[in-house]
Specification:
alpha+beta; 1,4-dihydroxy-2-naphthoyl-CoA thioesterase activity; Thiol Ester Dehydrase, Chain A; Thioestr_dom; 21% helix; hydrolase; single chain
Length: 139
Amino acid sequence: MQEQENTLEKLNSWRKNTMVEHLGIELTEVGPDFLCGKMPVDHRTHQPMGLLHGGASVALAETLGSIGATLLVDQSKYACVGLEINANHIKAVRSGFVYGKATVQHAGRTTQVWEIRITSETGDLVCLSRITMAVIEKK
C-alpha cells in the first residue's frame, strides 16, 4: 500500500453518508496487498426470505476491492473505478456477520484485479467475487 496515512480510522471515515455506512460495513484490517471488512446480516442486508441479499455481498466485495485498489495508487493523481465485478453465492446466511478479505491478484498501471472471499462467522465460504478496477488519472 502507498505510504499515505491509511489508518483504519481514516479509511472508515470514508463511509460517512454512503451506502457503505447504511449497510453497516466496517473495515477491520489493512495490509500491504489486502483489505478486510465485516458486514452485519440483518434487516439492512436481508432479502425478503430473511437471507443475506446477494447484492449486499456484492456491495461488500466492491467496497473492499475499490478501497484496496485506491490504497495502491498515488491518491493525489489517480482514482480507481470498477470496470467489472462477478460473484458466486455459495452459502446462505441468516444472521450475525459476514467477513470479507480482498486480495490483490494483479496491480498494473491501468488496471487492477482483486479477489474477495466472504465468509460466515463459522468460516464457511459465503461468496467468492472478483473485481476489475480501472486506474484513471484525476482531472
